[in-house]
Specification:
The protein is of the alpha/beta class. It is about 30% helix and about 25% strand.
Amino acid sequence: MTFLNASLLAGLLAIAIPVAVHLISRRQPRRVIFPATRFLQHRIESSRSKLRVRRWWLLALRILAVAAFAVALARPQIETAMAPRWFAVGLLGMLGAALLAMAGAAMAKGQSAKLRYGLAAAAVVALLAAAITGGATAAGGPEISVGDDLPVAMAIVIDNSIRTSRIASPPDADEPNPATPVIDQMRGHAQWMIGRYPNDSRIAIIDRSQRPAAFAVDVGSANRQIERTEPLSLTRPLSERIDAAVRLVRSSDLQRRMVLVITDLTTQSFPDSEWADATTETLLSQDPPIRLQILDVGTNPAGNRKLSPLVISDVTPPRLTPTAISTLLQWDGPPQRSATDGDAGRSVTVEMQLFDTSAPQSASLPIIRDSQTVLPPLRSVDRTTVNLATAATRVLLSVPPLEVGTHHGLVRILGDDELPIDDRRYFTLQVRPAASVLLVAADRESAGVIGGALTAPLAIDNEAAEYNIEIAELLPSKRENYANYEAIVLIDPVEPSPAVVADLEAYLAGGGKLISMLGPSLGRVATDASAASFPQGTLRRWRIPPPGTFLEIARPNHPAVLSLGDIAGGVPWNLFPINQYWQLQTQPGDTIVMRYAGTDHPALVDRRINRNAADPNGPENGGIHLILTTPLPALAGQSRGWNDLFAGTDAWPAFLLVREMMQSLIDAQRGTHNLSITDLPSIPIVDLGRGKAPATQVDSPADTADRSRIVDQSFQMFPPIGPPVPLRTSGPIATIGNVETPGTYWLRGAGTTTGFSVNLLPNQTDLTRLDPAKLQDWFGPQQYDLVRNRDELREAEGRGAPTRPLYGWILLLMAGAFVLEQVLSNRFYRSDRTAAIGSAKPAAAGPSSVSKFASEQRTVAS
């Protein structure tokens, strides 16, 4: 134990004052010789004993009140870890005082000496035990250093998620204040907290970036870190940062340790999936224990409009073809008023803008001019006004026809709200030259049906079609000619020769794309598992009795069937029966995309081919082979009757399946240019340096020369914020690394401009508040304090301190002693006054001898 003001213990000398007052004010009894009262001497002695006990108790209470006041002024402190021992000392002292009071009561009532002395002895033992225990605790405890001017090891964790860019009024404002960004409020609280401690404190500022947790060099450095703290789109888990703060503070040799978390207390900062397995509670309870202070600066949303992720009908649209883009306009806040209220604020305008790269002056953009990034100008291409009558309203916009190239744009909400960051969504479209596709079929009519499905609504020979379709009855005779096609479709193929199988395997190993629609022309009636068979694997013709079977999607997230899962009500595959198919034995690494209903037989298989080891500059993952084990379109010849997928006038499921299969192959190696903030951007080099990809990557000498030209180039990346970043690539894919800001990223290299768009995740700007009761499950009931303002923070600050003050307890003891002294003294002195009044009355009424004796007794007692 120690004292903040030890010199004030001299006030203990004031206990002499009540002793002196007691001795001076004591009245001497008058001796009256009255022989008639000798038989009552025993009664008189008993009364004197009561008076002595009362006087001693009055003296003790007065001494205790004065001593407690003097000790309270000295502000005693005890170590938090030793609090249970001091609590035991207090209990022993209270027990001793209670036993002493019982001994006094027994003496006053004339109880037996055995009882009186037994209680007194027990009281002495209890008081001695309290004194010995207290002395041992004080001597054995560690040295305590206390004082507001002592240094502290403190870590301030700032929850600077992207939601802190929100503009809102402070939650502790007594009256309406101008709204300010939440991040500014967090900075103000952090700087105020640092200013309350001496300069030799160890301060750590920990945000949700990847920067390691460490103490600042000095207080000034900590303040500069606070000023540089900005809202982040890409953040580390808050539980991870709090754990790092606790470990850092515990590693300090300073006795005062503190961890302060400044947060908006939203469900996105405290997700159940993250905190359910967190070890923060165990970490806080370790020795020495640390109490967490959580400052909540969040408020309920007053009204935030936001856009959901964009749904783009085709991210690689054909040349001069419009593209539809849809999104949900959402409302986060109090419920909207009905339309009858005439609230004009519910009318919201959504606009689509494109960067105009067609103008001659935009050919060299983006560029750095006068230390500023100059981008192509934005132009509005579509706009619509919707009535936000519900929590979410669908918005449909259209991108105009575009020329070949990379086109960037955005969709935004006009007007301001409390969280502007989610009012915009960015997109990138890749308009490419028509992809070369070879359709190989003995029946040209069947090939025409498949080709028409791929180029619809345009004709096969239309120059504006997305695919440049070529129809042939046989595959190319020379292996190098395969390089002219980005994809090849085998429609009801015949059994290929070993040379053709070798050419197809080389084509796939070099990154080619192949679709095989197996039908009756394969002609295999027995098991053939030879390595030269194509496709590789055991095949057997399988017939289904009426009414047949139908297709079922086994892998809904596969690109070939992904869009089919978004169709309202699902795809009615059961209306298109299948009567025959080839049973295919899958190979290691195969992905079963679709099955036949009621069986485990694969209907559509995605087979990935390993890259060509002889070509180090080839594609990373080789080619893709999609195998459909029933023929399409199955409208003529021997294939007719195998299935009804293209039969009838409403065969749209098979129509979409063919288009999606081809689209998934063409886009597989082009990468995606529309990313979320957590994705790792990987952009094909052909998009950067040349603008048009070669058809495939096979053993073509000319193609190898072209590829060697693009695998080692320098590029510049222009992010939405900040200076351009140089990039150097040495392979067919440029891996950008983590991006930290949503927006459009421009890439320039070798005279060609491309890029990609990055958007926030849909839940990153969710302002839903967290139920504070969950904090108790994650941190423990006694290991954190949730506060809303600085006053509450001051009160909670000492609960986790290494020492605890006894000031309040001692003042309570002084107040109790004073009250008991007043009660006892009033009863005692009232008896004296009553006795004096009774002795002054005349004896006209002829009092009896007993009344005279009582009067004399009181006189003697006084």
